[in-house]
Amino acid sequence: MYTRKENPPKLRPARRPRADAPGRKEEQAYIRLATEYLSRPGRLDERIRSLLDYQQALQRRVSQGASSPSDSYEARLLALRLRDVTKQADHCIDHLADLEREILLYLSHLDNQAEFRMLVDRFLDHRSVSDAAGHIQYEMRYAKKLQKRALVKVGRMLREDPPMRGYVSVSPPVPPAS
């Protein structure tokens, strides 16, 4: 306890947050929303890779050929499955291109070019924070702050004006059977 009355300790006044600044929980909700939305191309890209790997495995099995009537039936089934997987992969690739275009449109509304570049590098080009920081020539500590600020802005944009399609689902819509 301080007993000296001549020089009492100086207390700083409490900092008041700006009126437009979101609270910590609200800020974290914006970051989660933006991260979920911006991570969709990466998850879709992984799905495309797995479909293409499955397609190659099916092509190898189909190319082995049929030696008996039961093998010929199996070969036809494999060919049908191969056709379906190829259609699904093509649809996912088209969906990925549309999704990336939509995300770039959203990110183009950011007023800071460095924020735009950071989020494009991180989520569309799949770079690490340190690689993205080097690409935009920022120090790591400032790059993390820049990314956080940009994610809050994108989350706020998503909350105020969500995209036309539902961005919460992970998988693309299934193509119609023909």
Structure description:
It is a single chain. With 178 residues, the chain is mainly α. It has one domain. It has five helices and no strands. The model is unreliable at 166-174 (pLDDT under 50).
Layout of helices and strands, plus pairs?
Blueprint: H1 24-63, H2 69-107, H3 113-124, H4 129-135, H5 140-160
Helix pairs in contact: 1-2, 1-5, 3-4, 3-5, 4-5
> Which series of helices and strands comes N to C?
HHHHH
Question: Are there runs of 5+ residues with pLDDT below 50, and where?
Answer: 166-174
Question: How many beta-strand runs?
Answer: 0
User: How is the main sheet built?
Assistant: none
CA-to-CA gap between the ends? Answer: 82 Å
Domain count: the total is: 1
Please state the CA-atom Rg, rounded to the nearest Å.
26 Å
Helix count, DSSP H or I runs of 4 or more residues: 5
Average pLDDT for all residues: 82
- Describe the global form: elongated
